[in-house]
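One such given next:
>
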Amino acid sequence: MDVLREFHPQAARIAESLRARGEKVAVADGATGGLIMASLLTVPGALNFFVGGGVVYSFRARDVLFAQPREVYKGIRGPCPEYALIQARSIRDNMQADWGLAESGSVGGSKHPGGAPSGLSVVAIAGPDGFEAYTALETESDDRIANMYAFTLNALNFLEKTVA
């Protein structure tokens, strides 16, 4: 749980920014395995700024959480801005939040089904008034646990910068 203690101060700052604006976020964790959501939930009273989300680690989870027709994903393979933005929009809209954050990546240790190289993560944010942005991180590492940490930190940094 040390990693959650480490991420807590940043999660508290994100919570403060969202609460000050009266806004809420929903999260689609991918290769981060729930660490983004767990970090946000370390803040007491998280219900005031966090509505929920899920770990999207299979096509079934994707179909249930995002409720998009399969044609939406046609031609999209692996972690990329287009896929992460679809996820961010969908989780925001389906959870009726102001902000949607989605992380899609390849943590390593096994072959990614889309052929993405280990150590690649794309984080997208969809917000109010048509706001959309993304960032990518490439660690060039096959260390699964280190990548999960790095991808979560990248997502929290991007969210904090965006909602500050």
